Amino acid sequence: MGNKLTAVMIAHNEANRYLGMVLEDLVSYCDEVVVLDSGSTDGTASLARSFPRVRVYRNERDLFWEDESALRQQAWELALATHPEWILAIDADEMLERKFKKMRFQLLSQKGYHLLGFQRFHMWNGMNTYRVDKGWDNRWVYTPMIARVFPGKTYRFRPQKLHGGRLPENVDGPMLATGLRYRDFGYVRKEDQVRKYLEYMAHDPTGCGGVLLDHYRSILDPDPVLLPWTE
């Protein structure tokens, strides 16, 4: 494909969620995909291995809630070992919109920007509706997801137990706001909304010192404001 692109993700018990759909999409435009299985007890690793160009690594115990930044550092180093020109840091329940495939060559061939940013859409109560009330509206915010790799550079993630960021803290800018979107399927199902709320409250009961507490609580709002997704 040229301009080698490696995708990297951390996965934990994703076999019966969106991993298959996500990997099928990723292998259509990525040269390699690195999956770090963090202590899954289902068929996550086997499912990932069934796709071409996917490298699967495994930790026997899930470390995500213990030290997210260390886990992301481990995954990043594994992605670097594939010798990519660019790395896409994506979760097992996220997908870039289809337009990226058409723009891939243009975006990865340009020399002026070292980060590519995408708008995040939280899909809610369905695969094709997204939430826009309270802190869930990210339509005008660009999340850096793809970073140019500089050979020989030592990358480091901010040492933080939770919410440490998907990219190393010392990635080099500037960032191009691509005008492209991505869908986050983490809150599509009611049971996932409840699970995420309970996990956040169990592992971060103060909400990062109160900053995120109302955001956590809003996960369980009975009447979120939703809009239809179209591509």
TrEMBL record:
Enzyme class, first EC level, given as a word: transferase
Pfam (any one): Glycos_transf_2
One example GO MF annotation: glycosyltransferase activity
Annotated ranges, domain Glycosyltransferase 2-like: 7-135
Keywords noted in UniProt: Glycosyltransferase, Transferase
Sequence intervals crossing the membrane: none
Listed EC numbers: 2.4.-.-
InterPro entries (UniProt xref): Glyco_trans_2-like, Nucleotide-diphossugar_trans
Protein name from the UniProt record: Glycosyltransferase
Native source organism of the sequence: Carboxydichorda subterranea
